[in-house]
Amino acid sequence: MGNSISLNVPEKTGTFQDLWPHLSESEKKNIAEVAIRYLRDTRFIQYKTCRSADAVVLPRNRLEGFNGGEVSLPPTFSEPGRESNRIIQPCDTLDEIWDRVYEPPLLVSGVPEDLRAFLRKTMPQDKSFCLTPMDLSSSNIRVRNGEFSFLNSAENIAYTPSFFLNAGIDEMCLSTGRRIESRTKTGKEDTTLDGDLAWCNQLISWMKEKDNLCSDFGSNIFGIFREDGRGAEYGTLWFKYWRLIQLEDYRNDPATKSRRRYIEAVWEGMQGF
Questions:
Q1: What CA–CA distance (Å, rounded) separates 14 from 141?
Q2: What is the four-CA torsion angle of 30, 35, 38, 43, rounded to 10 degrees?
Q3: 3-class secondary structure, 57
Q4: Which of 39, 91, 92, 229 could be bridged to 97 by S-S, CB 3.0 to 4.6 A?
Q5: pTM as predicted
Q6: Looking at residue 67, what DSSP letter applies?
Q7: Tens place of pLDDT for every residue, the chain, 273 residues?
Q8: What does DSSP assign to residue 155?
Q9: How far is CA 20 from CA 26, 34, 75, 99, 106, in A?
Q10: 41 Cβ contact partners less than 8 Å away, ≥ 6 residues apart
Q11: Which long-range contacts (CB under 8 A, 24 or more apart) does 17-25 make?
């Protein structure tokens, strides 16, 4: 398999980002739609207990890279201002996920102990993880003969809590937003920006769809969330609070307390499911 997850399609070179100016509108739409369908389908990929034909397919139950190794987390999982990825070792327990993924940025950002304790108490309790591309930029989408080919590469794919996909999309949209701001300020041409913005809009639309597997994966396949997909929705809510609370201005905003009460109420309402 090498460094990518691929489909059987004819040979041709090019990334969605580089080819964007040269693709027809129908090709752009088709590539985006197939890429999103690919994201949905591959989230079901798990692993087999043995190599025999009747091997049992089981859900992943640990945070790990596609090949079982370390995970490369994008900047959205780090303290504000960091632009590089953060490498973490696989996590077998929720305590390890807290210690390696969530708590270090909080400490760097100076988040008080009581807020860290609140976030630890209410952190999402995922029991089975989805296959998630951690870098969804259009430069990571390979195109052959004007059609979607594969997502490149395996180093940026991991088994994660279901809501990590939402976080990855958020990171790409934030990055694109910063580029728009930079182009506005400097007037410097960015030939790939329009394509990246269109791809962001496609992903955002997909996130809002009723059948978005980011919400449905757990409830439909392994029964680990409520039937309305509340588990993934809660994870997204909690993660946004986790990110914002690292900003001192947000911590000092009176409205922050009401958001905390809301998260706690939702968390308490989910207990027992």
A1: 9
A2: -150
A3: strand
A4: 91
A5: 0.74
A6: T
A7: 444 444 433 344 688 888 888 888 888 888 888 888 887 777 766 544 444 445 444 556 789 988 888 998 888 899 888 888 899 999 999 899 999 999 999 999 999 999 999 999 999 887 668 888 888 888 888 888 888 887 766 677 888 887 888 777 877 787 788 788 888 888 888 778 888 888 888 887 877 664 444 343 333 333 333 333 456 678 888 988 999 899 999 888 888 888 888 888 888 876 654
A8: G
A9: 12, 15, 26, 41, 38
A10: none
A11: 17/137, 17/138, 17/139, 17/141, 17/192, 17/195, 17/196, 18/139, 18/192, 19/143, 20/138, 20/192, 20/194, 20/195, 20/198, 21/191, 21/195, 23/143, 23/146, 24/146
d(CA 215, CA 46): 17
Cα dist from 221 to 56, 213, 225, whole Å:
15, 10, 10
d(CA 102, CA 118): 12
Residue type, 21: P
Q: Which two tokens stand for residue 137?
A: 């930029």
Return contacts of 58-62, CB within 8 angstroms, 24+ apart: 59/128, 59/129, 59/221, 59/222, 60/128, 60/129, 60/131, 60/159, 61/127, 61/128, 61/129, 62/90, 62/91, 62/92, 62/129, 62/159
Structure token digits, residue 177: 């937003």
Instruction: Please count the residues of the chain.
Output: 273
